Amino acid sequence: MPGRWNREGDRSARETQILGWILVVPAMAAVGALILYPLVKGFQQSIQSGGILFGELPGYVGTRNYRDVLNDPTSRDAMRHTLEYVLLAVSLELVLGIFVAVTLHRVFRGRGFVLAVLILPWALPSVVSGVLWRRVFDPDNGLLNSVLLHLHIINQPQVWLASGRGAIIYITLVHVWGVLPLISLIFLAGLQSVPDEVYSASAVDGAGPWRQFRYITLPLLRPSMAIALTVGTLLAISIFDEIYVLNGTALNTRSILIQVYNTTFVEADFAHGTALAFVLAAVTAVLGGFYALALRRSTV
Amino acid sequence: MAIAAALFAASCGGSSSSSGSSASSESIRGQTITVLVPYVMPQKLLNQFTAETGVNVNYVRTGWDATHNKLIVANTAKTYIADVAEFDWSFTGQFAGAGWVEPLDNLLPAKTLADLKSTDAAFVSGGKTYAACYSNDFRLSMYNKQMFAKAGITSFPATFDELATDIQKLQASGVKYPLQIPMAATEGGITPWYLLTLAMGGQLFDQNLKPVFQTPDSAGYKALQWEADAVKNGWVSPGSVALNDDVALNDFLAGQSAILFATGPGNLPTANDPSQSSIVGKAALGLVPGVDGPGASFGLPEGLSIPVTAKHKAAAAAFINWWEQPKNAIAIYKTQGSLPCGTSTIKQMVATGQLQGGDVLNQELTHVGPLFQAGAPIWYSQFSADAQGLANAAVKGQMSVQDALTQLADKASARTQ
């Protein structure tokens, strides 16, 4: 009899194992076909020559394409712009996100309506928000010039997206406008998980609002901050739509992704385009890993 | 007739009124083809084609730059995108060199090809014709006669000095920004620089394809400086630095400016179409100004091609042949603004008085030449993309004209090595 039980137990375990594979294989196939295969093909392309379109024989060129894009002044400018987008966007999103979350955490009349309005920019596709903001920044017929001229703050129309640093700030603001609701909701969820008793106890101990914020809210929001930082950075590093709609492929606002697009699809230079895309992917992976580590530390 | 002669001096002439096509047989009936072209096409005309051939058409229109990029991606991936696709003059070196399109020599009737021979020269590579011209495009100017009259100007300026004087007169008469020049970092935004370079008596490259636009005494340098000065002097609106050619045309049609620089001949019918323009009857064509008299211009013909990945090549050929028939080409010209390419079509338009601005077109054609003497090089896309960004940065004042053109010349030299 024990032998029979063992055999039945083995069969049950085997069936469980087979069922597990049956459930996992489709997902593995999808990941393999949609992520791993393009990744391998893309990497292969990034170490190949441009081919006959570039007056070269097709073949393996090692790291040449990577060296080319890292030494190309236009690509380097795009990397610098992307870094500026990320630093500015993430800083603004964290500060404003906490501010909005703390404000909305309090119960006040019309809070539900404010929450609904807050989510609207996030619900809009980034291309749509870009088109809306183009109406604001348009130098000839835009709302911003019109209002400032009317108020005599400026005496001639400004081309807002023509300057270097200014244009990056304006585009970042448009990006932050779209992402801020998500970041605020992440912080709001974090705030709602903080027990009210903690605040009550600290109030009894004489802590004022600022000390409560400094010593209770901020430390307890650390996991939310790690999530917000990760989401904000990944969204900012892959900024594309807002730039493309507002300022096209102009050099002064070009991000790495715009440079990848231009190199790959306008110049038809897939070898250098994929090399640059892999550089961006590597940076994103390193940042993602760093944030994942920070998140783990903050939650353990 | 002089117009037809000038347009197609090398053409064999003759009528190609036959609607017959080697492909218009029962075998294509019931097929559906996808056509990818950056210009609108009235559904009524497409329905006529379907009625004649039994072939259904899925007409996809996207902007010029988007069309170009879609074709690059699909062709590189060797995947189907359309049965009939846009083929710009600038594609020839790249697309033919990569083997992305079918030669049309055996797909279209000989009579149709002969009728297009002159303009199709831009699409010939290695002795094979890769597209059938549908837009006999070259650059010239368009102006608002009413605004000119109000400013007391009786004729369109022939030189850049006269243009400067007239712009001041137009501003004095109340036109805030008289000139409309697209300068965005797009293909449409870089075309005016090419045109100005030729109009100022120069070239972009020498016969060995070495760049000749980077020294201050070169026409290319003066041309870009002229554009940058036009922004600084307030001749163009501040937003011109972010303006694409289609938006520039729309602004001109809305009566916002007096002169549209670097436009195509087919835009005059559009300006006189009440459904698309608010300056009907007020627009006229003008020659491209030059240094001592009318300046040089260049042709940018656009054609229809059949990608090698097309699913219904015979039906695609039938569609191209249908488009090229005088009756259809003229109907498309009236609605879409593409000046036809066929000799017989132009002759018919001249004879029936349907060619708008014919005298100016005739004069401008004597100044039209190719931008690249030996045809568009294989690296044109890369050069153009570089030029778009750098010239745009120069007109915005983000870098000097010298720096922009030095960088562009360095990049161009590296490409040609």
Task: Describe the structure concisely.
Chain A is mostly helical and 300 residues long.
Question: What can you see in these coordinates?
Answer:
- The complex is a heterodimer of chains A (300) and B (417).
- Chain A is mainly α and 300 residues long.
- Chain A contains 13 helices and no strands.
- In chain A, α3 (73-105) runs antiparallel to α10 (222-237), α3 crosses α12 and α12 (256-266) packs antiparallel against α13.
- Chain B folds into two domains: 2-137 and 300-365, D-Maltodextrin-Binding Protein, domain 2 (3-Layer(aba) Sandwich), CATH 3.40.190.10; 140-298 and 379-416, 3-Layer(aba) Sandwich (D-Maltodextrin-Binding Protein, domain 2).
- Chain B contains 18 helices and 13 strands.
- In chain B, α9 packs across α10 and α9 packs across α17 (380-395).
- The radius of gyration of chain B is 21 Å and the shape is globular.
- The model of chain B is unreliable at 1-24 (pLDDT under 50).
CATH architecture type of chain A: Orthogonal Bundle
- What Rg of chain A is obtained from the alpha carbons, in whole angstroms? 26 Å
Range of strand content of chain A: under 5%
**Count of alpha/pi helices of chain B:** 18
What is the 3D shape of chain A?
A: flat
The assigned CATH architecture of the largest domain in chain B is 3-Layer(aba) Sandwich
The CATH H-level homologous superfamily of chain A? MetI-like
Could you state the CATH homologous superfamily of the largest domain in chain B? Answer: Periplasmic binding protein-like II
Main beta-sheet annotation of chain A: none
Structural class of chain B: alpha/beta
- Biggest chain-to-chain interface with counts: A-B, 32 and 33 residues
- List the uncertain runs of chain A: none
CATH class of chain A: Mainly Alpha
How far is the first residue's CA from the last residue's CA of chain B?
A: 45 Å
Structural domains of chain A: how many? 1
In spatial order, strands of the major sheet of chain B run 2-1-3-12-6
Distance between the termini of chain A: 48 Å
Q: Using only CA atoms, what is the Rg of chain B? A: 21 Å
Strands of chain A, count: 0
Number of strands of chain B: 13
**Structural class from helices and strands of chain A?**
mainly alpha
